[in-house]
Specification:
heterodimer; A: alpha/beta; TIM Barrel; 8-stranded parallel sheet; 12 helices; globular; B: 354 residues; alpha/beta; 13 helices
């Protein structure tokens, strides 16, 4: 939705928290001050290698040039969309009175790179860059602790290095990890996160290296986009079945940009299968849907849009009204305008929970 | 063709192959020699580990710990649930071998075994043509070979294979299916050419089985976006043992992205949820929902079509207890459609025309 509705300049009183904003470097040079010379040289020579074949661009070309971003979001001073603090303030933060926004940098942030050293160097540089180039200028924008998640020990170290700094809102992973997120190789990340009561934000995308479906690679971007909910269902299933939440009972996971209409059905399916197969996973103490409800939050954009509005109300009610967080996905092409994206039938109380209340209860914003 | 009375057509029943010995009489000499000299004694698949509780309901475990290896064992089960007819979907692992010729030999033997040992023995039984997807020409040959026998009412493939079913390489199969008026049945299970999830191989069987619904999602997206139903407007697809309740949310999602990016697939000229309702059917067991009738009713209402659901027991898989495969909460007015009208329209359209 690239049409801007009513513009209200100025700030709400904690009326709007946006859990998915994507800042971008103007160029790689923005990250250079925060990288060791060794890794800067490596990046210049070999680039990133992220379990797909393209030097530049994506395995599934997006719907817009410049990484699938809004055509009306180019900053007037030049550069790509999402690279200017002042234009982001003008077009999004001030325009809608965003009280807090969480930055989820998608790239080049090193996540999922095959070279672990490069992955760690880029992730750490991205964290410094968020503070220095964004939060310092615009404190409403909170940073993500970007971690090189395929190397759990390095990730845990990065989390411990940053966690005391309240400018960081959560730990950021991408959904397509090389093994499903419940596997024990990732547990050091969760251990470090719960030590500091930081939620794990899981944004969709990344490259697992495995085929995008159980039947190989789909042809189209539409299929890839649709598949994100399957990856998210897989990672949630894995975390539940591996016993992550028995080991880390305070762990909170926020699924970002994965949609949410699939969640009730997943919980029902897991419960049904668990009834028959619980002997295989004796470490579970409760029905799978209880872990799903207690440990997972979801963000709105891109929200499923049924033909009949009441269907979406059913879904949101089955998930839990206190589990849904507003996200705009600024400045991507499928951006949601906070004034018109949520269904009008929500009612004021639930609208406000989704727009800010639930996020304020979940995150420690200072 | 379809004998009266028709009280319910069970659209998903699994006969068990007792072992390779049962198929030997139907194997050509070369493959008979191969299975014996190389010790190929089973094609059972890990999609249904034989002793797993889900694979066979406790009160249905009979001969050799299986459900039914012969029609006489199945008959009382159908009688108890008041099913007058049943469609046999044999999910022996013909899709597993990497050798195309082996797959062809096993598929032919399996279909011939079904015809002789099951269909000849009980005229209330119908069956699916198991095809060797490993080679599209062989799959088409098998359809042509078997379609003359009207007791075969469907072409059967697994939910997860080497390639997505919408891919153009498979289209000759759909041309053959459409020509003979046979629906394409997609059944839970994998050929294990890829991990069952996009995030690799899961630790537990419960993850594998739960992931099957995502396999169906990928096939629906592929069949629709590649334009299979634009090219073959007469083709029907039946999702068998898919879980059902994932479908509405998935179609909202697919339709939303189609709206945003339909330039990528210009041949898809109407919303995917419309295409789905016109072409795709789903068997009712398992129905992924809690045992709360109100929620079952709402979840089914989200499909916004009375034509989609087909009655099924999924025998011998343990999806429900008791004798009624239709879950509480399914509206009375929909029951007859699920039990009779929709299966007849899907598998016996000539009967409906009478």
């Amino acid at each position: 939705m690239n049409v801007q509705a009513k513009i209200v300049r100025g700030r709400n009183k904690l009326g709007l928290v946006d859990v998915d904003i994507h800042p971008r470097p103007k160029s790689l040079l923005d990250l250079k001050p925060f990288m060791a010379q060794q890794w800067w040289d490596y990046l210049q020579t070999f680039g990133t290698r992220r379990r797909h074949g393209y030097v530049r661009g994506h395995a599934y070309p997006k719907a817009h040039p410049d990484d699938g971003q809004r055509l009306d979001a180019y900053p007037p001073e030049g550069g790509t969309q999402g690279s200017s603090v002042s234009f982001m303030q003008y077009q999004h933060l001030d325009a809608y009175g965003v009280d807090f926004g969480i930055m989820n940098p998608l790239g080049p942030s090193g996540q999922g790179d095959q070279n672990r050293g490069l992955s760690a160097a880029l992730a750490s540089a991205t964290n410094d860059w968020q503070l220095e180039c964004w939060n310092r200028v615009e404190p409403r924008l909170k940073a993500s602790i970007v971690v090189p998640y395929e190397d759990a020990e390095a990730s845990a170290a990065e989390i411990r290095r940053r966690a005391g700094d309240s400018r960081f809102a959560h730990v950021l992973m991408l959904s397509r990890t090389s093994e499903a997120m419940g596997r024990q190789r990732y547990w050091p990340i969760y251990e470090a996160a719960v030590e500091h009561d930081l939620p794990i934000g899981v944004h969709v995308f990344g490259s697992s290296g495995w085929a995008g479906t159980g039947s190989g690679w789909p042809s189209y971007y539409i299929e890839e986009m649709t598949e994100h909910s399957a990856s998210a269902a897989t990672l949630a299933t894995s975390m539940i079945m591996e016993g992550v939440f028995e080991r880390f009972p305070t762990l909170k996971v926020v699924l970002i940009e994965a949609g949410f209409a699939w969640i009730p059905s997943l919980g029902w399916r897991l419960d049904k299968n668990w009834k028959r197969l619980h002997m295989e996973v004796p470490h579970l103490k409760r029905a799978p849907s209880e872990y799903l409800h207690d440990h997972f939050w979801v963000s709105t954009q891109p929200m499923e849009e049924p033909e009949h509005r009441q269907d979406l109300m059913d879904i949101m009610g089955w998930i839990g009204w206190d589990r849904i967080l507003f996200a705009s996905d600024y400045p991507h092409w499928d951006y949601d305008d906070p004034t018109i994206a949520l269904p009008p039938t929500l009612g004021e109380e639930r609208r406000q929970m989704i727009l800010s209340g639930n996020a304020l209860a979940l995150y420690r914003f200072a | 063709m379809l004998s009266d009375p028709i009280k319910a057509i069970d659209c998903d029943v699994h006969p068990a192959v007792p072992g390779m010995d049962a198929l030997k009489p139907f194997l050509e000499p070369y493959w008979l020699e191969q299975v014996e000299s190389r010790g190929i004694d089973s094609l059972e698949t890990i999609s249904y580990p034989p002793n797993s509780p889900l694979s066979v309901r406790p009160d249905w475990r009979k001969e050799d710990s299986r459900g039914a290896v012969k029609p006489a064992t199945l008959r009382p089960v159908l009688d108890r649930q008041a099913a007058t007819h049943a469609i046999l979907n044999c999910i022996y692992g013909v899709h597993l071998p990497y050798n195309e010729d082996a797959a062809r030999a096993f598929a032919r033997a399996l279909n011939d075994w079904i015809a002789k040992e099951w269909l000849d023995a009980d005229d209330r039984l119908y069956a699916s043509i198991v095809v060797p997807l490993q080679n599209v020409e062989y799959a088409v040959d098998e359809i042509e070979r078997r379609a003359k026998d009207k007791r075969f009412v469907q072409v059967l493939v697994p939910a997860m294979g080497e390639n997505l079913l919408g891919k153009r390489r498979f289209w000759p199969i759909y041309a053959a299916a459409e020509r003979h008026g046979l629906p394409l049945g997609i059944h839970a299970g994998s050929a294990y050419r890829h991990p069952v999830t996009s995030l690799g191989w899961p630790s537990y069987y419960i993850e594998d089985y739960s992931a099957q619904s995502t396999g169906f999602q990928a096939q629906v997206a592929s069949l629709i976006t590649e334009g299979v139903f634009t090219k073959f407007p007469g083709l029907k697809v039946v999702l068998i043992e898919s879980g059902v309740t994932w479908a509405p949310g998935f179609l909202w999602r697919l339709t939303k992205f189609w709206r945003g990016m339909r330039s990528e697939v210009p041949w898809v000229d109407r919303p995917p949820w419309e295409v789905f309702r016109d072409h795709i059917r789903m068997t009712i067991q398992p129905l992924d929902a809690p045992e709360t009738p109100d929620i079952v009713a709402r979840a089914i209402e989200h499909l916004h079509s009375d034509d989609i659901l087909l009655y099924s027991s999924d025998f011998p898989h343990w999806q429900f207890d008791g004798d009624d495969p239709v879950p509480a909460g399914v509206p009375d007015g929909l029951k007859r459609k699920i039990m009779v009208d929709n299966p007849v329209a899907t598998y016996f359209p000539e009967r409906r025309a009478q």
